User: Fold this.
Amino acid sequence: MFGGNGFSDISTGVPRVLNDFWLYDIATGKFKLMHPGSFTANATDSEMIEIPEGRHLAASCSYNETLFMFGGFGIGGKSLSDSWTFDLKHNKWTRLLNMSSAPSSRGHSGVWCYNSSLYLFGGLGDKIIYNDLWVFNMLSLKWEEVYGLKNLTGLMGNLVYPMGRNGACTWVSNNVFYLFGGNSNPLFTYTLQQSTGLMSDLWKYYPETKVWFYVSGPLFPGHKSVLNGIGTTVDSNLPGSRISSASWTDSHGHLWLFGGAGNDDMQPDAYHTRSSKLLADLWRFHVKEEGWAFMGGSKSGDIQGKYDKLDAKKHTSHPGARTEMMVWKLKPNRAVIFGGVGHDGKGIDGYLNDLWSVDFSEVTENDYLISTLSLLIFVGLGTFSLVMVLIILLCLRQPFSATVRRLNMGHSAKYSRLINEESMF
Assistant:
């Protein structure tokens, strides 16, 4: 985890863009400082010889023990266009100079880490929204433009592609790139968090054929969330328009989305002049059925967090509404969410440094069990006795009654807080 907007161990009372580098150890559940950056009491002159300036919302991917980073927003919100690598073995930054071609300065682009490539879509520049697509080869250290700026409406004859945006949610599933929501207003500011321009459309892109497909959702901004029940994929379900959500995939390749800043289930005003709400809802997109399901959290925005004991897996605990958080997927069906801007346990707004784990293994096991039972019923038309044996084996693996109750519960995923806020940097 590099930089961000927040506080270091040198307290000034005012948040600033940071350039420290941290590593989260999955085995121990602890953070390790890899590089102190410029704004810490531990910084030394030798470590400041070559280091990226402080920034947040940069694009990054890692490959073969090396982190690759591009752009972001620096001091005063200025958009950046520099490219860097960080050697995890030697804790060393290197700036990539003399780039023959590279994206223009921008931050908060859509990013897909795919094999040895970093794909970058759109982003916010200095009062301009991009919808161009670039790929960075992490072996040759070269940028290549897949296509340049297009008509920003996103529709042009038979050509279909997303309109320009920043802060979209992205996933890679079964060699397909997905992109959801984000902001389409070039005058958007992170201080005001306007709801004007926030989208809720879903797109997919095939990198091998370089073709976009529109999947679902309105093609214009400002929509509330629509949810019908919990844990059920329904065509009319739709996460509200939003920006800066957390995203990950499960073992079936389904797309998960948590929080962000945008619209909850209340209809936004006609002119979308209000600031967006901080969200704490949890959604899943079923890639085969191509539909959304509300999986838990809060359907209403701006809620405070519920903090139970550390490492306690309870359906009553949940993170407060937040945006611009970090997320890491832990195999097979677990994700970790860190920090962001949002509400703490007392409902106070600010920069957060709490660490949460969301366990969705029971949900994915339910999917496996249901799909397996459907297959057995089909095959069992001719082999009833064999089906009965297999059903008994499946029931021994996990009680079906527990599966049904899980789908009917208010929260289909478990949250547990891993680290106390006061114990971290």
